[in-house]
Amino acid sequence: MPSSEKQASIPYRQIRAHYDSETVTVYQAYSETIAIAAVxxxxxxxxxxxxxxxxxxxxxxxxxxxGYSFKDPRQSHILALKIPHCHFHHILSSASVTxxxxxxxxxxxxxxxxxVQWDPERSIGMKILPHRSIQIGISGELATKWVHWxxxxxxxxxxAERLKEAVDAxxxxxxxxxxxxxxxxxxxxxxxxxxxxxxxxxxxxDGY
Length: 208
Description:
This protein is of the alpha+beta class. It has 8 helices and 9 strands. It has helices at 3-9, 32-41, 85-93, 107-110, 140-147, 157-168, 176-181, 195-200; strands at residues 16-19, 23-30, 55-58, 77-84, 95-97, 114-122, 128-138, 152-155, 189-190. A 5-stranded antiparallel beta sheet has the order 8-4-2-1-9. A 4-stranded mixed beta sheet has the order 3-7-6-5. Strand 6 and strand 7 form a beta hairpin. The relative contact order is 0.22.
């Protein structure tokens, strides 16, 4: 299927992620001191520079947010964080979705420890795509717990840097499968959730 047709077939809101039978990988960018300490100790909060509240994670690398790791020294290292499915589901079930178009959240929604925002997805060359990807903000006591649910931490900054080199060299039109085979992007699949979670995450909405 041509890339444009494939993009058009993706639902407006869909969770896509790299996962196996036991864990799902989420991503966040950190400073060098936080990242190095986290990888060495396999503890995200190993560095005294780490601040856990609020904590934002993505189900995809979202390279454009950190400018392929070159944008900001505070986001110079992209970490891949593996957590068990059960804990990922717990985080999602504790969420309220950030409204748009001037709408406000109810008191009950504001009290929830997780904020989900559906951001426009972008191509590897930063072009905005017609569908959305999930951004997850974790705060309060759950942010403290979540840090200790992480089973492994890997620095994947090199992948983002190599991807930028490929984009700069004119490889933006290369197919996703080839990018995966070249080790430039992780293999991502649709992350299915049950109807209850779909309602919580407002995945069938298409307006904001």
